[in-house]
Amino acid sequence: MDNIKIEIMSLNDLKEYDFKKTDATVYFLKLFEHQRIANKNEIRLDKIQKKSSILQENILEYAMLQKKDDMSFLKFYSDFSKIPNDEYFFMFVGDFQWSAELKLKEIIDLEKLNGQETVDMDSVLEPIQDILKNYSIVKLNLSKKIRIGRKRKEDRICRFCKKSMKDGALFTNEAHAISEALGNKKIILNEECDTCNSYFDKEIERHLIGYLDFIRTLYKVPNKSNKVPNLRGKNYEFRNSNDGTQLIIYNRDHLKRVNEKKDRIILENHETVVPQNVYKSLVKFALSIIDSKYLVEFQKSIDWIRGQSEVERVPKIAMAVGKNNQTTQPDLVVYIRRNNCMNLPYAIGEFKFLTITFIFIIPTFKSEECDFLNECDFNHIWDCFKHYGPIESLRMMDFSSNNKQKNNFELNIANNKI
Three-state SS across the chain? Predict the structure, then answer.
């Protein structure tokens, strides 16, 4: 049965819904402003709609009538009720493909319609014009659960080892495109077999998780068991409870006085991390969410993250740390080059986790592509990605090492507070 896709754009959100193509759905859509198509038993919804208490009551009444057969109407009502009365919103029907430029244009139009002051679109787009010219942008809608790949297990092919069930691959475990331990409960990769999932979990992703252990604990990110973990190191313990977060320092001799109001301490961990595996984790996340049609360009990258090949050096990762861009859940954007501009990377990833942003090149390891091992090669990237702001605010970090390294944290303490 075909489905009818509906997207609602309000001032605060963009929501997508998949309704069954039934008479019940058609009747439901007639609750909104629409036009009848002459000589056809069809309607065309108006893009511009206005929220009212009467419309909300009609939707609730209809959703309650249909809840035994289809709960999707009730889910729609739950979201719709959050839109303020008398606010205009946009309604789109069909499989709508959003570009960054088009989405921004619609948002500005909606703000104008609701009497809000808006900025000039040209001034907003100016910092990202070069990105739009050179790159296609992959960003998933994290407001709902997304499954990437074929639904039927018999039809799946693992995008990393290329095996299907006919080749002996199993797809019994739910594979998360981004580690569940980092708070991802919504992006599921159907095209990852149990063997690859187990390998990435034990050999690769645990290094990124360990690298982020302190901030995970500080911001109380639940682990796979949906529990907020405690963290114990060589000279400290981090405890989370209903009363808050408590840092216990075993030996205050480790404290170094910065000034009369601030102390600094190095928190020493038992666990080590392999820096290159941190990089591999980020690349694996990116390769998990892009369209499978791009994977042919990354075969050497896939061999590398699977441990089938080795490299001595990888491009540096640009890192930004700050609460101004803090996210509540992991966020990932992938930029894939749409032309042959070889002084730009074929693909770039931007991974945000709480207060940390990783900007990393997704290497193809192709001889015709620049390897970006020299930091000066990044100048072309910064000229294109102007929205990152002053380059001085970014820390260029080298994750090339394949050796285990201490994973210690440097912490500033002021007035006994972190």
Answer: CCEEEEEEECCCCEEEEEEECCHHHHHHHCCCCEEECCCCCCEEECCEEECCHHHHHHHHHHHHHHCCCCCHHHHHHHHHCCCCCCCEEEEEECCCCCCHHHHHHHHHHHHHHCCCCCCCHHHHHHHHHHHHHHEEEEECCCCCCEEECCCCHHHCECCCCCCEHHHCCCCCCCCECCCHHHCCCCEEECCCCHHHHHHHHHHHHHHHHHHCHHHHHHCCCCCCCCCCCCEECCCEEEEEECCEEEEEECCHHHCEEEECCEEEEEECCCCEECHHHHHHHHHHHHHHHCCHHHHHHHHHHHHHHCCCCCCCCCCCEEEEECHHHCCCCCEEEEEEECCCCCCCCCEEEEEEECCEEEEEECCCCCCCCCCCCCHHHHHHHHHHCHHHCCHHHCEEECCCCCCCEECCEEEEEECCEC
pLDDT reported for residue 256: 65
Domain ranges of the chain: 3-110, 119-418
| pLDDT for res 224 | 73
Mean pLDDT, range 69-85, rounded to an integer: 90
